[in-house]
Write a structure and sequence with these properties.
225 residues; alpha/beta; Rossmann fold; 7 helices; 9 strands; 36% helix
Length: 225
């Protein structure tokens, strides 16, 4: 069942609740479900992103990192969840995001000027109850962040039962990350039947780390041109 239909079912299910304990039960059941994100990420993560975790997505430029971010934001907001994008590289184009399916009314977009400001914004969004918080470091992964900062953010995500999706050029969060997914640099796909024509880009997502689970799984990733 599509996540939009599941959200409609959830809205219908709470409309007839009579007591606070019944509402708490329904909310607990909802939080137990994985958070929908980009289909390739969902495939590696077993059907969605586990709530209460820090998940790291890394890869070089032209690997499809931000396309995956848009897909994850679109899936979460279409499911009725509130999402936050901490955009240190100022990558988001609101019109393009809306065309990609992101429901902008459910998206908080912040553009911090420094990495310390970005960490504060991520913590504030987690504490405020956003179900998905995307911290896109862009090329700032080269700036060193104490491991204790990532551990505090991971604990905040766990306490809020939210997903913190950390996006960067290289692995950054270390042991604080529950899983690490790497995006390979995209390769050009050419149509050689006649004059060479670029017909698309292809990359691959590889599960490099999963706490307490198997690694090495990979899925293909097609990128628009």
């Amino acid at each position: 069942m599509p996540w939009s239909e599941k959200w409609s079912d959830f809205s219908a299910s709470i409309s007839g609740l009579q007591t606070g304990s019944e509402l708490q039960r329904v909310l607990a059941e909802r939080r137990a479900r994985p958070l929908p994100s980009a289909p390739p990420l969902d495939a590696l993560e077993g059907g969605g992103l586990r709530r209460g975790s820090l998940i790291e997505l890394c890869g070089p430029r032209s690997s499809g990192r931000f396309a995956l971010v848009l897909s994850a934001l679109a899936a979460a907001t279409r499911a009725g969840e509130a999402a936050a994008l901490i955009d240190t590289g100022d990558h988001l184009d609101p019109r393009g995001a809306a065309e990609a399916g992101v429901e902008l009314a459910r998206l908080l977009w912040t553009r911090p000027r420094t990495l310390p400001e970005a960490l504060v914004c991520a913590r504030a969004a987690l504490d405020a109850g956003f179900a998905l918080v995307v911290l896109d470091l862009g090329e700032r992964a080269q700036e060193r962040v104490p491991s204790a900062s990532w551990l505090r953010l991971a604990r905040a995500a766990e306490a809020a039962q939210a997903v913190l999706l950390l996006v960067s050029a290289r692995p950054t969060a270390g042991s604080a990350a529950e899983s690490l997914v790497e995006a390979e640099r995209a390769r050009s796909l050419w149509d050689l039947d006649g004059p060479p024509l670029l017909r698309g880009l292809s990359a691959r997502l590889i599960l490099r780390k999963r706490r307490g689970g198997s690694v090495g799984g990979n899925v293909p990733l097609s990128l628009p041109i």
